[in-house]
Design brief:
CATH topology: YbaK protein
CATH superfamily: YbaK/aminoacyl-tRNA synthetase-associated domain
Oligomer: single chain
Number of domains: 1
Number of strands: 8
Radius of gyration: 14 Å
CATH architecture: Alpha-Beta Complex
CATH class: Alpha Beta
Distance between the termini: 35 Å
Structural class: alpha/beta
Number of helices: 5
């Protein structure tokens, strides 16, 4: 298992969770690729997208259902700050992960976290685990416990 995925496994254990990381045979950089490789619906993929809050320069992690496109205006209303999608270098500096492998936990910086309410439609969801070939299964409730995020409507 890659070092980044091992770090996520350690972060899970440190927080008291027993979820196990699964290594997939192929890269799953998109929600569609992940759903196909896992054999689940795209809506069950908890995709992690990093934005930069423009005034504070802080990172914002939005974990959304794989089928949803994030409405940046709605998010800006919730956080009261403008946002922009982060580039690959910013994502790596803020999370320690590459795009396609950003896990909900285990980041190198403290991130503000927002969670898509649509994820609560599913008993089990899947999140990236530090590398584009690794994922883990969890419940929406576990996601909320792990991240201490705020549940909002992102679409």
């Amino acid at each position: 298992m890659k070092a980044s995925a091992q770090a996520v496994q350690q972060a899970l254990l440190h927080k008291g969770f027993t979820n196990k990381i699964v290594e997939l045979p192929d890269h799953t950089r998109t929600a569609e690729e992940a759903a196909e490789a896992i054999g689940c619906n795209i809506e069950q993929i908890a995709k992690s997208i990093i934005f930069k809050m423009t005034s504070s320069n802080q990172a914002l992690l939005i974990i959304a259902s794989g089928a949803n496109r994030i409405d940046e205006t709605k998010v800006e209303e919730v956080i009261q700050e403008k946002i922009e999608i982060a580039d690959a270098d910013y994502v790596k500096r803020q999370t320690g992960f590459t795009i396609g492998g950003v896990a909900p936990i285990g980041h190198v910086q403290t991130l503000k976290v927002l969670l898509d309410e649509d994820l609560w439609q599913y008993k089990n969801i899947w999140a990236a685990a530090g590398h584009p070939k690794t994922v883990f299964s969890l419940t929406p409730g576990e996601l909320l416990q792990m991240t201490k995020g705020k549940v909002i409507r992102v679409t």
